[in-house]
Design goal:
The chain has 164 residues and is of the alpha+beta class. The protein is 40% helix and 16% strand. Residues 1-51 are annotated as: Disordered.
Length: 164
């Protein structure tokens, strides 16, 4: 599943953020993400909902539609180049990306990005810990294949899995 590219209507993230209502399509994002093994959903310190895996943030949603996701800068650069996400709305030079959900059609793109972050953190967890418990329920290779990653992202994940 390849996510749709984010909308580009000239509107800043801050303008989009102010124009939102509470009646937004974030429930599917929270519902799906909360079902991933090991993910916890909590209130985010700057508003919204935060998704964590073993205490590490996978991403968070502000006011329903602005999703911020941390990545290694290398992955962030690929996602920006492929126009799958935008630079973070506050910290554009960090590894973080932002993704605006403006309609139901954008939900798949948000979930795709969150899933990449989740799998990256899951690989790191498995390398650190001998006991993987619930996280063993995830077949990383199968999920990565379903995500239809670009060659550049596949290369990063391949390196991440083999580096000891």
């Amino acid at each position: 599943m390849v996510p749709p590219k984010p909308h580009r209507n000239g509107e800043s993230h801050e303008q989009t953020e102010r124009s939102r209502t509470r009646d937004t399509p974030t429930n599917p994002i929270e519902s799906d993400t909360s079902e991933w093994p090991g993910v916890e959903v909590e209130s985010h310190d700057r508003g919204g909902r935060e998704f964590t895996l073993d205490g590490r943030e996978v991403g968070h949603v502000h006011r329903g539609r602005l999703i911020d996701i941390p990545f290694a800068k290398r992955i962030r650069d690929i996602l920006i180049e492929e126009e799958r996400a935008e630079k973070h709305h506050v910290y554009p030079d960090s590894g973080w990306v932002s993704y605006c959900v403006r309609s139901d059609e954008d939900i798949d793109g948000a979930l795709w990005l969150l899933r990449i972050s989740y799998l990256y953190h899951l690989i790191a967890m498995r390398k650190r810990e001998k006991d993987h418990s619930a996280e063993d329920a995830v077949n990383i290779d199968a999920v990565l294949a379903e995500l239809d990653l670009s060659d550049a992202l596949e290369h990063v994940f391949s390196e991440r899995r083999t580096v000891e």
